Amino acid sequence: MEAIKKALNKASEKYSKQIVIRALIQAIPYIGSSLDTLFAGKGNQIQFERLKHFLEILKEKLEKIEKDIYIQPSEEFFDLMVNIFDGVIKTRIKEKRERFANIIINKIINESTRWDEAEIATRLLKELDEIHIRILIEGINAPICGSPFNGLKVITLKESKSNIQGPVNLKEKFPEYEIEVLRMVCAELVSRGLLYDEGIGRVDVKSMEYFTATKLAEWWLKWIIADIK
How far apart are CA 197 and CA 212, in angstroms? Predict the structure, then answer.
């Protein structure tokens, strides 16, 4: 922990010496002073606190593992931890930091899994936000629908006035988000292969309105969530 703090302080000192850059930042209207304060010192403290929180979570989770485990120091292990640390210091969401810890725990418990699988899971987690994860969880846990989605677990952006068990309405599940934001999040998940657009190839359904979680989504959620159903 002390080594991490020293590294962050060193980065802060380097920035503090860049007088010209600091002067330019301070000259930015409205936000310049706050940016300078963050970059010169407070930002490093924020990053340190995020790493500290992450390491505390990881320690707690590791102590609960009921089997003897030894991780061989390796290039793969080093690269994974560096990538995870990078993701941790860039997220202010505590739940997301815990998801990074889950990747490490799952790799340790499932020794047969490849290091590059854990790296792929880490890269996806760094790229996506908590709302992406919450929507995928809704997709995985959605009830089975009837016609025209017989046998599928479907989530939707389209409002339905039917009382029959149908797709899970994302706007109702996440009323704090504008429909445009939810639509953008779903589009991003489709582009990454985590959601499938059920409107493709259906004559009675428009595209980008109804979705199902893919096998890739199930695989990824198992990496980042300890108790996924």
Answer: 7
Residue scoring higher pLDDT (135 or 58): 135
Please enumerate in sequence order all residues whose Cβ is within 8 A of that of 75, keeping only pairs 6 or more positions apart, or say none. Answer: none
Is 62's pLDDT higher than 90? no
Question: Does residue 39 carry a pLDDT above 80?
Answer: no
Cα Rg of the chain (Å, integer):
22
List helix spans (H) across 64-204: 75-89, 94-109, 115-127, 130-141, 170-173, 179-191
Please give the model's pTM, rounded to 2 decimal places. 0.78
Bridge pairing between strands 155-156 and 210-213 = antiparallel
Instruction: Answer whether 117's CB lies under 8 Å from 73's CB.
Output: no
Task: Check whether 133 has a pLDDT greater than 90.
Answer: yes
The torsion angles phi and psi of 228, rounded to 5 degrees, stand at -65, 140
Chain centroid to Cα 49, Å, comes to 19
